[in-house]
Specification:
The protein folds into two domains: 73 residues; 101 residues. Helix content is 79%, strand content 0%. The chain has six helices and no strands. The longest helix is centred in the N-terminal third of the chain and has 45 residues. 10% of the residues are buried. The model has no long low-confidence stretch (mean pLDDT 84).
Length: 189
C-alpha cells in the first residue's frame, strides 16, 4: 500500500527540518567538534525516524495484504442461490424477477435497488455486499439486453445510479481496508 501524499509531505518536512534546525542552533557559538557531534546526532535522529517510518509502512503493507487475502478467499466462496434470491427480493421488491423486466421497469428497478442499498449499506457485512453486487450484476445484464430500446433520459439516469452503487461499494471496501491497516490502541491488540 502506498503512503498518501499528505503522509509523505509530513514525513519529508519532519525529516528535513530536524537536522537543519539543530545545525542552525549549534553553528553560531560552537566549535567544529561540537558541530560535528550535532550533525552526528541529527543524522542518528534522521535514521531513527526513517526506520520507524519504514517499519510502519511495512506493517501496513502486511495488514493490507492479509485483508486482500481474506477478501479474495471470501470472493471465491460461491453465493447461496436461496440467499441470493432473498437478497434480490429484499433489494428489488416487485422487480426481483429480472428476466421479466421490461424497458419501462428497468429505471424503477435501479431506483429501488439504490433506495434499498442506501438504507441498508451501513449494517451490511462484506458478504452482504457480495450478494448485493450479485443482484446488481444481474440487473446490469438485463440492462445490457434492453439498452438499445431505452430512451436516452432513462439510460443517463441508470448510468448515474450504476455509478452511485459502485461508489457505495468502493467506499465500504476502503472503510474496511482502513480499519484493517489502522494501528489499534495497545489495549485492543
Amino acid at each position: 500500500m502506498k503512503p498518501t501524499a499528505a503522509f509523505r509531505r509530513r514525513l519529508a518536512t519532519t525529516l528535513l527540518a530536524a537536522p537543519a534546525l539543530s545545525l542552525l542552533l549549534t553553528a553560531c557559538d560552537s566549535t567544529p567538534r561540537e558541530r560535528q557531534e550535532a550533525v552526528k546526532d541529527s543524522a542518528h535522529k534522521l535514521d531513527t525516524l526513517a526506520d520507524k517510518a519504514g517499519n510502519a509502512i511495512e506493517r501496513i503493507g502486511h495488514r493490507a495484504a492479509r485483508f486482500d487475502s481474506v477478501s479474495r478467499a471470501r470472493s471465491r466462496q460461491p453465493l447461496d442461490t436461496v440467499a441470493t434470491a432473498a437478497f434480490a427480493q429484499e433489494l428489488l421488491g416487485s422487480y426481483a424477477n429480472l428476466g421479466a423486466l421490461t424497458v419501462d421497469q428497468l429505471d424503477p428497478a435501479y431506483t429501488q435497488l439504490l433506495r434499498q442499498t442506501r438504507a441498508k449499506r451501513r449494517e451490511w457485512t462484506q458478504r452482504d455486499w457480495d450478494y448485493a453486487t450479485s443482484v446488481f450484476d444481474r440487473l446490469n445484464a438485463r440492462y445490457r439486453a434492453l439498452r438499445l430500446d431505452l430512451p436516452a433520459r432513462q439510460e443517463i439516469h441508470i448510468k448515474a445510479l450504476q455509478a452511485e452503487f459502485e461508489t457505495l461499494e468502493t467506499t465500504r471496501d476502503l472503510k474496511d481496508l482502513r480499519e484493517a491497516v489502522r494501528d489499534k490502541p495497545a489495549t485492543a491488540r
